[in-house]
Design goal:
The protein is an alpha/beta fold. The protein contains 14 helices and 26 strands. Strands 3-2-1-7-20 form a 5-stranded parallel sheet.
Length: about 475
C-alpha cells in the first residue's frame, strides 16, 4: 500500500465541542447533559460503559444486611419472627438487580439516541488539544477527564505472592456469589465500616482492622456511637492496628496483626481492602497535553480546570483543589464543568460543603467543620439526641444524635448526624450551609409533625437556650407584660 493510500484510509479527526474521557456515572451524566443542550459530544471508554459499580453493589449489600438485622430486632416492637435465613444466591441476584437500574440508562443505544458519539479504546493525549483513541483523532474544543479510580493493593509483606482471588475490593462485590466464612476488612473509612458490619450481619465472622481508627473523616462522637454498635454486633475491632504479614494457607490466608491490643495471628477466608484507591490516569499521557498530576490525581483549580485551560477533570480522578471531594460531591462536579463548557461560567468546588456519608447502621452523615479542631470559645456546639424525639421512639430507633456547630453569632459551620436516615436528614443542612443561613433561621423552618427531622429543629432551637436566663430579656418581657 502506498503512503498516499495509507493516509487516505486514516479516519478524519473528530471535532466535537466536548470530549469526555471515561463512561462511568459522572462521565455519562456530563456527556448526556451537554448533548441535551445540542452540543456535539464524544464519549471515550476503554472498558464497559457504566464504569465500576462497586459503590452501588456495596450499598445494595448493606441494605440487604440491614433488613436481616431488622428482622432480628423486631422483638423490641413486640413482634416475634423466625431468625432470617440468608440465601447467598438471592443476595447476589439483589445486587445484580440494583445494578441494572443504572445500566438501563447507560446502554450504547441510548447514548447514540442522545447524539453522543461513543468511542471504544484506550485514550491518550497527543497534544494540548488532541486525543488519540486507536486510529481516531479527537480535536475537541474542551476535554473532560472522568476516568475515576481503581482499587489499590496495600504494600503488605507476603501479599504480592498470594492468590489474587483471596484479596477483594469494592469493585469485586458485583461478582461475589459466596459470602466468606471468615473475613478480614482492612480500612476504617465509611465504606470499610459499612461492609464489615454488613458481612457480619449476613453471617460472616468479621475482623475490622483500622490503621487510623474508625471513621476518621467523621466526627469523633459519631465514631463512638458506631464503635459501640460494631462491638455489640460481634465485629472484632482492631483500631490503630496494622497487618504486618500475610501468608497463604489452605482455604484462605493467615494474617499477622500488631496493635495496642496485642495483635496476633489468625486465619481468614478472604481479605477485603476497602477505601484504598488510586486515580486511573496513568495511560492518558497527561504531560503531552500540559496537564499536571500527582498521587492524588489530576491537579485542578476550584473550577476543576487543569493547567491546560481547555481540559477539566472531575470525580475521583481529580486532585488539587478537588482532592477529597470526588466521591462525596455527587453531581456537583458535573454541574461545574457543564456550566463552564456550555456557558463559560466558572463554578467553584468546595470539599468542605460536600456531605460525607457512611452507609453503616446507624448511618453517619457529616458536613463542614464539626468542631473537632475548633478552639474553645470560638464556636457553639448544639446537640439533640434521637432518644428525645417522639418519632424515633415510635420507630424504636433512638440511637444517635444531631450535632450542629456554629460560631458565636449563630452562623453555621458544620453538622454531624448519626442515626437512622442521617443521609436524608443532612440534606436541609447542605442547603442551609450553601445559602449562608444562620442556625436561628433553620429553627424557624416548619417541619411535619412526628418526623425524624424534629431532631434537627430542636438542635437549632437550643441555640436560644442561653437567652431564657438573660436578665435583660427577662426585664423586657416583664415590661411588656404591663401592657396586657
Amino acid at each position: 500500500m502506498s503512503e498516499a493510500t495509507a493516509k487516505a484510509a486514516k479516519p478524519a479527526a473528530l471535532t466535537p465541542d466536548l470530549c469526555v474521557i471515561g463512561a462511568g456515572d459522572r462521565g455519562i451524566a456530563l456527556a448526556a447533559a451537554a448533548a441535551a443542550f445540542g452540543a456535539p459530544v464524544v464519549l471515550v471508554e476503554r472498558q464497559a460503559v457504566g464504569g465500576r459499580q462497586g459503590a452501588l453493589a456495596a450499598k445494595a449489600l448493606v441494605e440487604a444486611a440491614a433488613r436481616a438485622q431488622e428482622a432480628r430486632e423486631t422483638g423490641r416492637l413486640g413482634l416475634q419472627l423466625d431468625a432470617p435465613q440468608v440465601s447467598e444466591a438471592q443476595i447476589h441476584d439483589h445486587i445484580r438487580r440494583a445494578l441494572t437500574v443504572t445500566a438501563a440508562n447507560q446502554r450504547p443505544e441510548r447514548l447514540a439516541a442522545l447524539g453522543i458519539r461513543l468511542l471504544r479504546g484506550e485514550a491518550r493525549f497527543t497534544g494540548r488539544g488532541s486525543l488519540a483513541v486507536g486510529d481516531v483523532t479527537v480535536k475537541a474544543r474542551r476535554f473532560a477527564i472522568a476516568t475515576g479510580s481503581r482499587p489499590e493493593r496495600p504494600a503488605l509483606p507476603g501479599l504480592a505472592g498470594l492468590d489474587p482471588d483471596l484479596v477483594l475490593s469494592e469493585d469485586d462485590l458485583p461478582g461475589l456469589t459466596r459470602l466468606p466464612e471468615r473475613l478480614c476488612v482492612l480500612g476504617g473509612s465509611g465504606t470499610a465500616v459499612a461492609l464489615a458490619q454488613a458481612f457480619a450481619r449476613l453471617g460472616s465472622a468479621v475482623a475490622l482492622i483500622c490503621p487510623a481508627g474508625i471513621l476518621p473523616e467523621h466526627d469523633a462522637e459519631a465514631a463512638l456511637v458506631l464503635r459501640r454498635r460494631l462491638l455489640r454486633e460481634g465485629v472484632a475491632l482492631h483500631e490503630d492496628s496494622a497487618i504486618v504479614q500475610a501468608e497463604g494457607r489452605r482455604g484462605g490466608l493467615s494474617l499477622t496483626v500488631s496493635g495496642p491490643d496485642g495483635g496476633g495471628t489468625f486465619p481468614v477466608s478472604r481479605l477485603l481492602v476497602a477505601g484504598l484507591r488510586k486515580p486511573d490516569i496513568e495511560a492518558l499521557d497527561l504531560d503531552l497535553a500540559g496537564i499536571r498530576a500527582d498521587s492524588g490525581g489530576v491537579i485542578v483549580d476550584r473550577s476543576l480546570r487543569t493547567a491546560n485551560r481547555r481540559i477539566f477533570a472531575l470525580g475521583s480522578c481529580a486532585g488539587g483543589a478537588a482532592a477529597g471531594s470526588g466521591s462525596a460531591a455527587g453531581d456537583d462536579h458535573v454541574g461545574i464543568v457543564l456550566r463552564s463548557v456550555l456557558f463559560r461560567r466558572n463554578g467553584a468546588v468546595d470539599p468542605a460543603r460536600s456531605p460525607r456519608v457512611a452507609w453503616c447502621r446507624p448511618e453517619v452523615a457529616s458536613l463542614g467543620d464539626t468542631g473537632r479542631e475548633a478552639r474553645p470559645g470560638r464556636v457553639r456546639v448544639l446537640r439533640w439526641p434521637f432518644a428525645e424525639v417522639p418519632a424515633a421512639a415510635a420507630a424504636g430507633r433512638t440511637e444517635g444524635h444531631v450535632k450542629v456547630v456554629t460560631d458565636r453569632k449563630g452562623r453555621l459551620r458544620g453538622v454531624s448526624i448519626v442515626g437512622d436516615g442521617a443521609a436524608e436528614l443532612i440534606a436541609p443542612w447542605c442547603l442551609a450551609l450553601k445559602a449562608g443561613l444562620a442556625v436561628t433561621e433553620m429553627a424557624e423552618v416548619p417541619l411535619p409533625a412526628l418526623a425524624l427531622g424534629d431532631a434537627s429543629r430542636r438542635a437549632a432551637l437550643s441555640f436560644h437556650a442561653g437567652a431564657t436566663t438573660s436578665p435583660g430579656l427577662r426585664r423586657l418581657i416583664g415590661f411588656l407584660r404591663r401592657f396586657g
